[in-house]
Fold this protein.
Amino acid sequence: MSLDYENDSAFHEELITQVLSQYPNKAAKRRQKHLSVATDSEEVGEEGQISECDVKSNIKSIPGVMTIRGCAYAGSKGVVWGPVKDMVHVSHGPVGCGQYSWSQRRNYYVGTTGIDTFVTMQFTSDFQEKDIVFGGDGKLEKIIDEIEELFPLSKGITVQSECPIGLIGDDIEAVSRKKAKEHEKTIVPVRCEGFRGVSQSLGHHIANDAIRDWVFDKGEVEFETGAYDVNVVGDYNIGGDAWASRILLEEIGLRVVGNWSGDATLAEMERAPKAKLNLIHCYRSMNYICRHMEEKYGIPWMEYNFFGPSQIEDSLRKIAKHFGPTIEERAERVIAKYQPLVDAVVDKYWPRLQGKRVMLYVGGLRPRHVITAYEDLGMQIVGTGYEFGHNDDYQRTGHYAKKGTLIYDDATSYELDKFIERIRPDLVGSGIKEKYPVQKMGIPFRQMHSWDYSGPYHGYDGFAIFARDMDLAINNPVWDLYDAPWKKTTVPAERLAAE
Amino acid sequence: MPQSAEKILDHAPLFREPEYRQMLAEKKLNFECPHAEQIVTEQGEHTKTWEYREKNLAREALVVNPAKACQPLGAVFAAAGFERTMSFVHGSQGCVAYYRSHLSRHFKEPSSAVSSSMTEDAAVFGGLKNMVDGLANTYALYDPKMIAVSTTCMAEVIGDDLHGFIENARTEGSVPPEFDVPFAHTPAFVGSHVDGYDSMVKGILEHFWKGKERTKAAGTINIIPGFDGFCVGNNRELKRLLNLMGVSYTFIQDASDQFDTPSDGEFRMYDGGTKIKDVRAALNAEATLSLQHYNTRKTLEYCREFEQATASFHYPLGVKATDEFLMKVSEVSGREIPETIRLERGRLIDAMADSQSWLHGKKYAIYGDPDFVYAVARFVMETGGEPIHCLATNGTPAWKAEMKELLAASPFGKDAQVWPGKDLWAMRSLLFTEPVDLLIGNSYGKYLERDTGTPLVRLMFPIFDRHHHHRFPLMGYQGGLRVLTTILDKIFDKLDRESMQLGVTDYSYDLTR
């Protein structure tokens, strides 16, 4: 179900010029490189490429502009490590980082929290001034001992460094080594201090490296392997995404021996190098470890997309092809099995959503991966961008975004507000910080990090929920109540002036 | 196939469908390498014991599920209570994303703040350049009337000097010469969000008051609310009471409009807040009253340097706390408490009398910020309830002493224990070993409700999983009525739930209670 449309390039170019004109010169020059409009692909013959989404990315944010980005700690503790359920993740440093990220990513898991699983808990070393002055290594040792005493069923510990750790010169590696030996447990020091890098992204990389250095090859892994063993990498099981994906992979005959890192256990990570194929969903946050496993253990990896039926179908076929006719045949059966559900969902929601225009601003894989899911429902993407994407993300976006799509990298609140105000899309998909400003403007919104407390959105089961959620956001009667009947218009003066 | 277009199942029912249950059971069995079920059960039971409690309370280093946040959150909240003020937090940028998210999740409102986005090079060379560029950008893009600067722990560890940096930025033309840029150092490794609040408000007062002469304006009062997730309801309620009394007052820091903007097509980045001219004039007030003592220790001390009279309260909620607050206002302002307020008071008492049989002897565990815990313990005792566990992760020895005094003054406080510096994992042990009827706190308490079965009443920031509570007051007699009703609802709902099994327990399923 490929939707044919083009966005208004000239209008979008004009919007970019307008927002840049409000910046001081130095900042305007820097921001200019991050904003563009998708053009026709020059790479003729590049398979699947439909446009060029060429912006500078993965560069330091400009001070004082209200970037939406987070930090390396958020990328490591919040994204990669936090969901590993049978380990205790210590937010090492002052209390805030762990407090604000506590239970906020909705990484679903099954377990007895506080006893054998620990995801929705906040473990912190709660640094005080004396820890800054005299160092926190002694405290960390004691913390590890206390975890052993009070949470003996934990399978390991990660030390998630907050800003001060790297600044005061603590040696968390030495402490981890010593304590791992003493307690005979996996202890992983992670150097994800928030000031490192330019966004969450370096935190993902650092977290990946920590898996490589502190988990892999640390001991004998006893595990009976099979011909169809795969790891699912970069699915954090938000609202149950990984479960709605796993069920499909199992149905086509694969054995998911590890899921990284939603609902994961340490054992699933340890045995990963024994799998036959790595299936990567969030390329941005976990490509590093896939490349490492390819290099060191010869495991190939494959990107896939489980948002919306078109992509699910394509992905299932692509994955099945890797394993040959038996699996391919099963994949076809699975696709056929779910087709009636897909048809029913599309029949129900297409008439309610057709032609609705969507702006996205998210992280990881979603700014491109969800585009076709919207298009499967007849909706159009007018703008998209990444909080912390790299060049390779924008290249891949060219496989999804139509010509004329407004592209924004590390957008500031100012830019987003102006773009949204002028474009007035029918729906914005972004994060909690963006939700309320957008809704105040009378524009429907869905959080596309947390699924707005809904989900799963992956897989066929998730697509039904996705469709329903977009409908309930756009077609709620509240949006028609904004204007008091005795007032003719509430369009802000500024916008009238601009028009 | 569990999902259908007619009846779309959400995550909760979806994953209870047989296909998924089987899938998850097999995942556990084949791939997770779990502990044996019996070991998990035994450990679970062990955590309910006195033995575990003793080890748990003896922890010296590890903190688990604390009920406190860090200083800059308080500073950002404080700055949101001043006219067209943008918070500028100097240091790493991820922190600011966290503060904004945290506040938005509670208020269901926009929360604007900027960061100076310091990275590794700034860690080595200092963040002066970030301050200079940052202030210029913030000023140009967001049209603030004031920029309030605070710090993340990164900037504090490397020792950046805010005052010097801001003056440098001013010299370089980042902001106009007379533009207001108050600041506060807010190290995350000292105190908690309530101290960050204190520092920021003091920083703003210092910025406007320093070196100024005070001309006392007799009878006028400043009110500082403190960090309060219920500021929307509370500040408006208190203003109503003060207006009824005809008092001349200024709220110093008032985020009630900022965190409650209307939906009418326009996004207001700034709304309401204390006017800058009013902050200047507040120097002349006869007295400054703090609604939350532990949020304003430094600020009130600063007010006293100007010979202002000061008084502080512990979150004036309930009967006597509201009485005392109003009488103090009356004393300072010389205005009588009008009959209408006495009638309001009478209506709260009336409600308490009507419901007293359901509240008398109920046992409570209360946690949260120090002033809040004090206030709730006091009100609970006014209803005949018995506080058993009073816990503040950011409570100090001074708070403990004050709590002890409060509890000792009532027969209903005789069994109470006070737990400064303890966290919610400690509370878990307390609830298992010495159970109570109700738990009062915030959304984090839901894990305690799940584990121990103690019904949770959400009355404090942050409340993420219930909507709009903060739009209604907790302070004053009206607030007392709301707290009373909330507690009663919880009790009645539980009674109904426990007596609604048809033909088994429903003999007690009374229509009238």
Q: What stands out?
A: The first helix of chain B runs from residue 11 to 14. Residues 239 and 416 of chain B are 34 Å apart (CA to CA). The mean pLDDT of chain B is 98. Chain B is about 50% helix and 10% strand.
